[in-house]
Design a protein that fits this description.
Structural class: mainly alpha
Shape: globular
Strand content: under 5%
Distance between the termini: 37 Å
Order of helices and strands: HHHHHHH
Number of helices: 7
Length: 131
């Protein structure tokens, strides 16, 4: 899949991204479709491999790791860090990017690591500043 997406047009990548996003979102919200979340991970990994500088691809892969069964919260934090790093202030895609820090904070809370407290607060303050 990675090879096919690397050679795909931006229009094809957009369609694949939207379909995977919808499947992940549905799986996160609906128990009946929970298994779909894990099936989106290789798709988002292939999208990230095709364009590692796309914050949306990195963020969606992070979200998928949070909602996967079992969750991989360290991977989620890693990809959300990358999405935050890539975010372009003032771009049209920035509107919902506060969700990057919100989900990153949730992943850190899920780890239950007391050392993450300062990072959790930093994420939550960033969310507050973006809203």
């Amino acid at each position: 899949m990675k090879e096919k997406l690397e050679g795909a047009s931006d229009d094809v990548k957009k369609i694949v991204f939207n379909l995977a996003h919808d499947a992940r979102s549905l799986g996160r919200r609906t128990l009946t479709f929970k298994d779909r979340v894990n099936r989106t991970i290789p798709i988002f990994e292939a999208l990230v491999a095709s364009d590692n500088n796309n914050p949306s691809y990195n963020a969606e892969l992070g979200y998928a790791y949070i909602s996967s069964q079992p969750p991989d919260l360290n991977q989620a934090i890693s990809y959300l860090d990358r999405a935050i790093e890539l975010r372009v202030p003032g771009s049209s895609m920035e509107g919902d990017s506060w969700k990057y820090e919100m989900n990153q904070a949730l992943a850190r809370i899920g780890l239950g690591n007391s050392q993450s407290r300062d990072d959790i607060l930093k994420d939550l303050f960033a969310v507050e500043q973006r809203n």
